[in-house]
From TrEMBL:
<keyword id="KW-0157">Chromophore</keyword>
<feature type="binding site">
    <location>
        <position position="224"/>
    </location>
    <ligand>
        <name>FAD</name>
    </ligand>
</feature>
<keyword id="KW-0274">FAD</keyword>
<comment type="similarity">
    <text>Belongs to the DNA photolyase family.</text>
</comment>
<feature type="site" description="Electron transfer via tryptophanyl radical">
    <location>
        <position position="311"/>
    </location>
</feature>
<dbReference type="GO" id="GO:0009416">
    <property type="term" value="P:response to light stimulus"/>
</dbReference>
<dbReference type="InterPro" id="IPR036155">
    <property type="entry name" value="Crypto/Photolyase_N_sf"/>
</dbReference>
<protein>
    <submittedName>
        <fullName>Deoxyribodipyrimidine photolyase</fullName>
        <ecNumber>4.1.99.3</ecNumber>
    </submittedName>
</protein>
<feature type="binding site">
    <location>
        <begin position="278"/>
        <end position="285"/>
    </location>
    <ligand>
        <name>FAD</name>
    </ligand>
</feature>
<dbReference type="GO" id="GO:0003904">
    <property type="term" value="F:deoxyribodipyrimidine photo-lyase activity"/>
</dbReference>
<dbReference type="Pfam" id="PF00875">
    <property type="entry name" value="DNA_photolyase"/>
</dbReference>
<feature type="domain" description="Photolyase/cryptochrome alpha/beta">
    <location>
        <begin position="1"/>
        <end position="134"/>
    </location>
</feature>
<dbReference type="InterPro" id="IPR014729">
    <property type="entry name" value="Rossmann-like_a/b/a_fold"/>
</dbReference>
<dbReference type="GO" id="GO:0071949">
    <property type="term" value="F:FAD binding"/>
</dbReference>
<dbReference type="Pfam" id="PF03441">
    <property type="entry name" value="FAD_binding_7"/>
</dbReference>
<feature type="site" description="Electron transfer via tryptophanyl radical">
    <location>
        <position position="364"/>
    </location>
</feature>
<dbReference type="InterPro" id="IPR006050">
    <property type="entry name" value="DNA_photolyase_N"/>
</dbReference>
């Protein structure tokens, strides 16, 4: 028989359950990707993320060829085109089954449902797997059988539940005997847009990625809890793993991360390590997306909180934030990092999101959309979770009255002012270091004046919320 494996955000040959299933016997297997530029545009897919996705797909080529796994590229427009095109391809190749790994946002699930229905009408079987999570959605539930709405009890239950889902990393499948067809070339721009990302910072290929993972768990995971909140200018000195872009396109699976943590770090208490905790946050947000479909429609998790906020539709302030020109050093440095590298440190994501939604009172959806369009690790579930958390409308979010002070955040997490001086060179001459974190620092040297007064903006936000 011939089977199709429809690759999406699971661009790996190792630990890929759909691929392992398709290769379980002697069958010939064909990989297929669907290019849907109109839907990508509607979803605001960033050129950085799609560039990484493209190059990772290309990087699989030599291993794919060795395994006799040809790749077909279906050049379509929208998700809606997938059911017919995939069924047609399966028919042409005499394939009996289409296998894929689930994706959890609503549009993706609807697309997949339509593909299964169309294929089944044509007598072609479909099989789906949870390759993107360690524990599938719906499997970590409260005593009453409902979804958790708060993180800590979720994570405790997740750890207990792990025993039932603690499977080994799946090996790369055995080579096929026959190549079922020829491969298609992968278009440079995926028919989408000019793709670009910092390939010096994010090399592709399963080997390079697994090396980065192993180095992190060998050398840095022990200090993760201590160092994770401090952004660095040198990527190699960063306290966090910087693996999110790979997890987002599925070049790496969370199970591979957990297995490396267990095998490489000598912490017997690995299950309680703070790095695993972050991977569990990733799982939490995906579980929520499935349990609460309104989230995919950008509804707040806590509408009663959002109802008390009046968003100010101020374009000038939003534009200044987007360009990193607010006059608040830590905010501007973070936004410059995003614009130049497609990545931003987690602490800074929280700072800039709080600044935008609470001090500028710009709707969190605008910030989330901007992040989706610029982040190399843009990920619908984690981004939505992060923005709703930061604006206090999310599950287990900080209360609305907790508003980050950008100056003290800078003083605390960039105490030498090294990070701001790197991204805002105008500030380099300023000493002592603390001055670099003051709003308006460097105004004489060409940096903008602060676009708001922190105290007034904070008070206005609190008044609004309490009114
Ligand atoms: P590490 O600290 O090494 O953590 C390991 C992995 O755990 C990460 O690669 C990531 O997959 C996961 N993870 C870590 N923190 C979180 C978190 N808070 N929520 C969910 N998963 C987490 N993450 C994305 O992957 N894509 C996004 O689009 C995204 N948008 C965000 C927007 C906002 C406003 C905020 C506050 C956070 C966002 N995050 C997002 C979460 C987090 O900032 C990144 O996952 C993290 O900075 C990635 O760096 P790292 O790989 O070095 O993480």
């Amino acid at each position: 028989p011939v089977r199709l494996v429809w690759l999406r955000n699971d661009l790996r040959l190792t630990d890929n359950p759909a691929l392992a299933h398709a290769c379980r016997d002697e069958a010939s297997v064909v990989l297929v990707v669907t290019l849907t530029p109109e839907t990508w545009e509607a979803h605001g897919e960033s050129a950085a993320r799609m560039g990484l996705w493209r190059d990772q797909l290309e990087s699989l080529q030599s291993e794919r060829e060795r395994l006799r796994l040809p790749l077909k590229v279906l050049r379509l427009k929208r998700f809606d085109d997938c059911p017919k095109a995939l069924t047609e391809l399966a028919r042409t190749l005499n394939a009996t089954e289409i296998c894929f790994n689930y994706e959890y946002p609503l549009n993706e699930r609807q697309r997949d449902g339509a593909v299964c229905a169309e294929a089944e009408k044509a007598g072609i079987a479909t099989r789906a797997f949870h390759g993107e999570l360690i524990i599938p959605p719906g499997q970590v539930l409260t005593g009453q059988g409902g979804p958790f709405k708060v993180y800590t009890p979720f994570s405790n239950a997740w750890r207990k539940r792990l025993i039932d889902f603690d499977q080994p990393v799946l090996a790369v499948p055995q080579p096929r005997h026959h190549r079922a067809c020829e491969s298609d070339p992968i278009p440079e721009d995926l028919d989408y847009t000019a793709l670009s990302y910092r390939n010096d910072l994010w090399p592709v290929g399963e080997e390079a990625i697994s090396e980065r993972l192993n180095r992190f768990v060998r050398e840095r995971v022990q200090d993760y809890a201590k160092k994770r909140d401090f952004p660095r200018t040198d990527p190699d000195a960063e306290g966090t793993s910087r693996l999110s872009p790979y997890l987002t396109i599925g070049a790496l699976s969370p199970r591979q991360c957990m297995a490396a943590l267990r095998a490489q770090c000598d912490d017997p208490d690995w299950l309680n390590s703070s790095w695993l905790n972050e991977l569990i946050w990733r799982e939490f947000y995906r579980h929520l997306l499935v349990a609460f479909p309104g989230l995919s429609r950008l509804e707040p998790f806590r509408p009663e909180v959002e109802a008390r906020i009046s968003w100010l539709g101020e374009d000038a302030a939003f534009d200044a934030w987007c360009r990193g020109e607010t006059g608040f050093p830590i905010v501007d440095a973070a936004m410059k990092q995003l614009l130049e590298t497609g990545w931003m440190h987690n602490r800074l994501r929280m700072v800039v999101a709080s600044y935008l939604t609470k001090l500028l009172r710009v709707d969190w959806r605008r910030g989330a959309d901007f992040f989706m369009r610029h982040l190399i690790d843009a990920d619908f579930a984690s981004n939505l979770g992060g923005w709703q958390w930061s604006s206090s409308v999310g599950a287990d979010a900080a209360p609305y009255f907790r508003i980050f002070n950008p100056q003290t955040q800078g003083e605390k997490f960039d105490p030498e002012g090294t990070f701001v001086a790197h991204w805002l060179p105008e500030l380099r001459a300023l000493t002592p270091h603390k001055r670099r974190q003051q709003p308006g620092a460097g105004a004489q040297a060409g940096r903008p004046e602060p676009i708001i007064d922190y105290r007034q903006a904070r008070q206005a936000a609190l008044n609004d919320y309490q009114s």
